């Protein structure tokens, strides 16, 4: 009877043994790679119904910054758009989002929303001022807290929060720009329509983080009731200034994951190839429970 050594030495059988040994060695690696490929990639969202998309547009650098944090007691989504005309825009947006995320991660339970937004905004404003060291900079910020079926939000600047429901995109917060002030003055009869529409400064921000004059965010007066299938969308002005409401609603109406819907919006923005395309960022959260 041949020994194992004799079998291995047999030139006719050696190739078969080599195949068996190769399979035993390589199979665990194949399975490991398969598991890694099945894991959700960073930023794509997974079973929690979260997705995002971003493009630098025609700008030289990306001044938008964003994050989502899913804790056992609730979810935070936050998006900041650094003011492109100021040299410290990128620093401001990054510092603002990092501050909100840090304070949310330190919580042990769902916070009182007005208190959380108020404290985080003031701390973010202080952190931005410290990091800028006198350099001009500032950022918009929109943040959403979600617990069960309730949406709470805070905003400053002109980044927007929407809820998509039943084919309709519902605007939730307001833009803090001179344009809104001019509109109020027109409606009250203080100025004419042409004066309101013709003001060259109408898109100027009147409230943002990174300013000594910052006082507070716009806060939800009461929580927004969510239903299964609702899609919560946070976006910078590079999104809503490029895409029409109908275009956004069409994408959100499709049976796409939040990540795929966000990417579809970014793809459409890039397809338009606008000469002065701003940074564009979108976060989409779908309520699946």
TrEMBL record:
<dbReference type="InterPro" id="IPR001932">
    <property type="entry name" value="PPM-type_phosphatase-like_dom"/>
</dbReference>
<protein>
    <submittedName>
        <fullName>Serine/threonine protein phosphatase</fullName>
    </submittedName>
</protein>
<feature type="domain" description="PPM-type phosphatase">
    <location>
        <begin position="49"/>
        <end position="287"/>
    </location>
</feature>
<keyword id="KW-0812">Transmembrane</keyword>
<dbReference type="Pfam" id="PF13672">
    <property type="entry name" value="PP2C_2"/>
</dbReference>
<dbReference type="InterPro" id="IPR036457">
    <property type="entry name" value="PPM-type-like_dom_sf"/>
</dbReference>
<keyword id="KW-0472">Membrane</keyword>
<feature type="transmembrane region" description="Helical">
    <location>
        <begin position="12"/>
        <end position="32"/>
    </location>
</feature>
<keyword id="KW-1133">Transmembrane helix</keyword>
């Amino acid at each position: 009877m041949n020994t194992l050594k004799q079998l291995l030495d047999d030139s006719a059988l050696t190739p078969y043994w080599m195949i068996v040994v190769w399979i035993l060695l390589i199979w665990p690696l194949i399975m490991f790679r398969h598991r890694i490929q099945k894991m959700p990639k960073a930023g794509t969202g997974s079973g929690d119904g979260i997705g995002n998309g971003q493009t630098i547009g025609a700008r030289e650098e990306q001044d938008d910054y964003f994050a989502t944090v899913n804790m056992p007691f609730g979810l935070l989504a936050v998006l900041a758009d650094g003011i492109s005309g100021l040299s410290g825009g990128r620093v401001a947006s990054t510092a603002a989002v990092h501050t909100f995320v840090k304070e949310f991660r330190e919580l042990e339970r769902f916070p009182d929303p007005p208190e959380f937004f108020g404290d985080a905004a003031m701390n973010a404003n202080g952190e931005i001022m410290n990091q800028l060291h006198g350099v001009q900079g500032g950022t918009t910020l929109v943040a959403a807290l979600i617990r069960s079926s309730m949406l709470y939000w805070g905003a400053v600047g002109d980044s927007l929060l929407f809820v998509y429901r039943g084919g309709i995109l519902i605007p939730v917060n307001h833009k803090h720009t001179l344009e809104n002030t001019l509109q109020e003055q027109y409606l009250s009869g203080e100025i004419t329509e042409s004066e309101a529409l013709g003001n060259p400064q109408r898109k100027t921000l009147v409230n943002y983080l990174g300013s000594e004059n910052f006082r507070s965010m716009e806060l939800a007066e009461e929580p927004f009731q969510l239903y299964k299938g609702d899609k919560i969308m946070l976006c910078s002005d590079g999104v809503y200034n490029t895409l029409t409401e109908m275009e956004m609603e069409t994408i959100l109406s499709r049976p796409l994951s939040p990540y795929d819907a966000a990417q579809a919006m970014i793809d459409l923005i890039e397809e338009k190839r606008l000469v002065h395309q701003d940074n564009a960022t979108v976060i989409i959260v779908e309520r699946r429970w």
